[in-house]
Design a protein that fits this description.
Number of helices: 14
Largest sheet: 9 strands, mixed
Radius of gyration: 21 Å
Oligomer: single chain
Number of strands: 9
Distance between the termini: 53 Å
Strand content: 15-25%
Length: about 350
């Protein structure tokens, strides 16, 4: 088999081995900015199926990228896993990622969710959509453009303009509209603010429950968590929150990803590719959905109940590389506006 041999074949071999037998094929070292306990099943099931030991270091994405740069040729990391395509773009621009050729990854991951030359691959998705107070808003915005409509002045709450999710959303607008129109949109969004930007996505949703905000922008999985379990300040009032997947008659709703990439100096490159391919299997994709309420990257994967409640939607198939490429310009626009 080639170095990018199919994990499907490896898993089939593992299943056929006698009980207690192991495929002693070494290890894989992962630097990950994902910090979800539910990911533990991804690692343990991969080891059980392949015999490959998973070693993991967790941290903030920017810290892990800086560590990779400092380690250089001596880095033990085989894989970098980040949240947000913009962060993966930063790592790629620093020369930290290497191209991967894999028939499995090409077949499983839609083209717009992976780097055109295989430098990184999206594994799960989160849509950044509109949520609103059903008791106060009878005609919510149906598009991203409408968020800047003066009709919603004083009603819209968001995170800070320096937040990576907000940067990626504006970066997508730059790609679709051009810098001038995207600047006008960001200015309108700022002028419609219901309060100064603050907190995370869960805090935006809580602000609907508390009555402080009428319309907010949030990633889907934060809301889905409130449906799935008891999130303080959210779950008890979640029935009063409605949602809109924007631009369903246009480009589709903005999505971002958790993504993984093989590092430039990976000492266990073959095992790293095996792990990437494993993450596209139905089992692993369902873990992403059920464990953290993220939309799977592989089409046709079953959805966890909270995501099924939110429903399917038309996704913006803008190549996510644009989110990184336009990131600096997006920050400059927010800074110019004073979008704190």
């Amino acid at each position: 088999m080639t170095p990018a041999r199919s994990i499907i074949a490896t898993l089939a071999l593992a299943t056929a081995l006698p009980a207690g037998a192991a495929l002693a094929e070494g290890e894989v070292n992962i630097y990950s900015s994902r910090h979800y306990d539910t990911d533990e099943r991804l690692y343990s099931d991969f080891t059980e199926a392949t015999g490959i030991k998973v070693n993991r270091i967790e941290g903030k994405a920017d810290e892990l990228i800086a560590r990779l740069e400092a380690e250089g040729d001596n880095s033990p990391a085989d894989l970098l896993i980040t949240v947000d395509a913009g962060r993966m773009w930063r790592a790629d621009q620093a020369g930290l990622l290497s191209p991967v050729e894999s028939d499995v990854l090409s077949a499983q991951i839609p083209e717009y969710l992976r780097h055109p030359e295989g430098h990184w691959f999206g594994l799960s998705q989160r849509a950044r959509i509109i949520f609103y107070d059903k008791n106060e808003v009878s005609n919510p915005p149906r598009t991203y453009a409408e968020l800047a409509d003066p009709a919603y002045k004083g009603q819209v709450c968001t995170r800070s303009g320096s937040n990576i999710y907000m940067l990626s959303l504006l970066a997508a607008q730059i790609e679709h509209l051009g810098a001038e129109e995207a600047t006008a949109w960001a200015k309108g969004l700022w002028e419609n603010r219901g309060r100064e930007p603050q907190g995370g996505d869960t805090d935006q949703l809580r602000a609907i429950v508390s009555g402080e905000c009428e319309i907010v922008v949030s990633n889907t999985y934060y809301f889905a968590r409130g449906l799935a379990g008891d999130v303080s300040g959210l779950t008890e009032g979640i029935e009063g929150i409605g949602w809109v997947f924007p631009d369903q008659s246009g480009a589709g709703s903005h999505v971002n990803i958790s993504a993984a990439a093989v590092t430039t100096h990976a000492p266990n490159r073959e095992n790293a590719i095996k792990f990437l391919e494993y993450l596209t299997t139905a089992q692993a994709q369902e873990y992403f959905s059920e464990g953290n309420n993220e939309y799977p990257a592989v089409p046709g994967t079953a959805l966890a109940a909270p995501l099924a409640t939110l429903g399917l939607f038309r996704q913006d198939d803008l190549p996510l590389e644009a989110l990184g490429r336009n990131q600096t310009e997006a920050q400059q626009i927010y800074n110019t506006i004073g979008y704190n």
